[in-house]
């Protein structure tokens, strides 16, 4: 029995045809995958494509971080994005939420405060703690970097049908729901 990927709901497509028709960054420069003949080959092909997706995602995030502020490392953009998405927080919460150690988070927040991208104020619930939030300038830079990232993303899927998008989103959702986070 030969396994098939579904490219269009009504048109099954062999995995290699699907991969060739996908617009994955640097696909032309990557080595062509051998034709899958069994499940192990399909799993390896999926692994290659997930690796390409993750690499492209890292590159896009690095570019977004540079758009946010060229003098800051990409990790600063993760902190700024989290604050943009969820609002003010203490350094310890930021470190936990973005998966960084507290000292690195502290250094980056201090840099962003000195650049006028964030403000620091005493915690209204605990006068000893410090709460960070994005300034208007920080919000504007995050929004601008996110808009550029969104534009790049939309360009990559511009010629996809709604059915393609729905199917891809559903498969990614199914895949991501099976991932288990490592125990701390």
Short description:
With 184 residues, the chain is mainly alpha-helical. 59% of the residues lie in helices and 10% in strands.
The topology string of helices and strands comes to EEHHHEHHEEHH
Multimerization state: single chain
- Percentage of β-strand residues: 5-15%
Structural class: mainly alpha
How large, in whole angstroms, is the Cα Rg? Answer: 21 Å
Biggest sheet: strands, sense, closure? 3 strands, antiparallel
* The CATH architecture of the domain at 72-145: Orthogonal Bundle
User: Kindly, what is the distance between the CA atoms of the first and last residues, rounded to a whole number of angstroms?
Assistant: 42 Å
What general outline do the C-alpha atoms trace?
A: elongated
Q: How is this fold's topology laid out?
A:
Layout: E1 5-8, E2 11-13, H1 15-21, H2 39-68, H3 74-86, E3 89-90, H4 91-98, H5 102-114, E4 118-122, E5 130-134, H6 136-157, H7 162-176
Antiparallel strand pairs: 1-2, 3-5, 4-5
Provide key terms for this protein.
disordered N terminus; mainly alpha; three-stranded antiparallel beta sheet
Can you characterise this structure?
The protein is mainly alpha-helical and 184 residues long. The protein is 59% helix and 10% strand. The chain has seven helices and five strands, in the order ββαααβααββαα. The protein has helices at residues 15-21, 39-68, 74-86, 91-98, 102-114, 136-157, 162-176, and strands at 5-8, 11-13, 89-90, 118-122, 130-134. The chain has a three-stranded antiparallel sheet with strand order 3-5-4. A two-stranded antiparallel sheet has the order 1-2. The two termini are 42 Å apart. Residues 1-25 have low confidence and may be disordered.
